[in-house]
Structure prediction request, 194 residues.
Amino acid sequence: MKITDFQKEIKNAFDVVRLDAVVTKAVYDRKNLTAWAAIILFLPFVVNVILSSLSFPSGFSAIFSSFVFWPIFIPALSILAVMFFIGLFADKVYKAKVEYMGIFRVMSYGSIILWLSMVLLLLSFIGFMSFGAFGLISLVALGWVLYIAYNTLMKVCTMKDQAAMITVILGFFVYYLVQSSLGKILVGDFYRFL
Prediction:
């Protein structure tokens, strides 16, 4: 992994966000981009956990607190659940020719929008932004990533419009259920969806 590869994949991620059909198809098909997809998806969550833990008086040791680690990582786990669900549902219910890792790569590349959360966290440290903005940016990013999935299901996996729409709408409910369940189990009553 070279810095020029990193720059190229960041550009490709923004092209996926802009719904560039050629780049989306290439990301879907290229198995060697799976590591980059994981980096793009998880980087903002890892950075946000580290930065959040540094805001506590105990410093970096706060990273292991259930009130720091899990609230930041639960959305990432929920997005992973949605990726798996979309691939599984499209494959088993609609018999679409879906490659699960292809869906993972495209949706992960589309999740580059979540990188904005790192900027929001830095702004919250200097008092320009409240912590509540993270839930909103996660919800907006989820909406766009689901729209990217919808386009991918129709254009790359050749699903019909209605089938792709139903799959994506159910994906949103899976996100909500997984996030709420994990929040209740791992954090407790303090965890909120937004």
User: Anything to note?
Assistant: Residues 86 and 170 are 8 Å apart (CA to CA). Residues 3-186 form one domain. The chain has a mean pLDDT of 89. The two ends are 35 Å apart (CA to CA).
